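// run 5 | inverse folding | seed 20
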């Protein structure tokens, strides 16, 4: 039943957004859901033209490739009787006999354009049902006052793996390679603290552990090997890239200031105190948005009504690298402080 017409899966890269969509597809097949006949998975990483016409043609050709659709042009007038987006989805609903089930992945580069605004209205008119997967741009789309998605997208937060799933992700591949673990409970406890049980970080350590085993010609791994990997420069760069790789310089500075404060518990109010102490003015709405954006960047994790750093490694590498040095090296810092 179409009780929920909009869903969003928002999270950092490597956390499993695409895997969740694929599992949903498999569920439709397994249960012989009638929506399967109108289901389309579309990966926007493959969309090379991000203009309105380019995005509309890309959508249309993934749904119904034809000479007519390859010549579609975007009509900017937001009128269901006129614009090409509504016209296309009305036609496809009639052809398929039901609303389209659209699973749209990697939408960040395109979701804030005009096509998606009209697409949101198409969903509202039950021409289609949307599942969107993305990162910070999708989060911003959900919050924009003039967005057709505002207060309509039901957000699915991807949490760290449960302990059993995290254990299987690490232990089973190692066992398949003929490797075992000394004092498994202690080993996993250390690994889970370092990675926060995030799948991409667990996989990073799994890959490094196999390299350690091969280079040392050993078959039994221990916490000492975890310490070796943790101490490598490449590992510190990989973990710190969650912050240093943030494209928005304003958000990056806030993340570094929070890391420098070494707070165990973070709330929007705490973010406000850190900002005020560094002469940064932020509105109350912006404080909450910053926390959510840092969850998307895999810097923070949401716990009940507060936030915490996503893993212990960030705090340790922050001390090692020197957060103040990173802040001092940001050339835009003074300008940003005045403009925030």
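// decoded
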């Amino acid at each position: 039943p179409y009780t929920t017409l909009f869903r969003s899966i928002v999270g950092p890269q490597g956390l499993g957004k695409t895997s969740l969509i694929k599992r949903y597809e498999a569920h439709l097949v397994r249960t012989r859901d009638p929506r399967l006949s109108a289901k389309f998975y579309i990966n926007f990483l493959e969309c090379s033209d991000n203009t309105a016409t380019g995005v509309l043609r890309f959508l249309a050709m993934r749904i119904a490739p034809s000479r007519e659709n390859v010549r579609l042009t975007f009509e900017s007038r937001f009128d269901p009787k006129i614009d090409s987006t509504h016209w296309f989805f009305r036609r496809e609903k009639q052809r398929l006999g039901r609303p389209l089930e659209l699973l749209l992945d990697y939408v960040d580069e395109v979701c804030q354009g005009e096509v998606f605004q009209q697409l949101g209205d198409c969903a509202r008119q039950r021409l289609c049902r949307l599942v969107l997967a993305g990162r910070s741009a999708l989060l911003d789309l959900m919050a924009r006052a003039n967005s057709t998605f505002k207060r309509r997208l039901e957000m699915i937060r991807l949490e760290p793996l449960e302990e059993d799933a995290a254990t299987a992700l690490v232990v089973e591949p190692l066992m398949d390679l003929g490797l075992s673990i000394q004092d498994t409970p202690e080993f996993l406890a250390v690994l889970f603290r370092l990675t926060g049980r995030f799948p991409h970080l667990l996989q990073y350590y799994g890959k490094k552990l196999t390299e350690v085993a091969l280079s040392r010609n050993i078959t039994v791994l221990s916490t000492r090997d975890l310490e070796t990997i943790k101490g490598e420069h490449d590992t510190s760069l990989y973990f710190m890239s969650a912050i240093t790789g943030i494209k928005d310089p304003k958000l990056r500075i806030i993340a570094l200031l929070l890391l420098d404060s070494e707070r165990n518990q973070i709330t929007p109010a705490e973010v406000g105190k850190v900002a005020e102490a560094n002469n940064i003015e932020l509105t109350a709405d912006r404080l909450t948005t910053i926390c959510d954006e840092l969850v998307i960047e895999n810097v923070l994790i949401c716990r009940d009504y507060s936030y915490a750093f996503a893993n212990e490694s960030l705090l340790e590498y922050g001390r090692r690298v020197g957060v103040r040095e990173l802040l001092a090296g940001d050339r835009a810092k003074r300008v940003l402080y005045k403009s925030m």
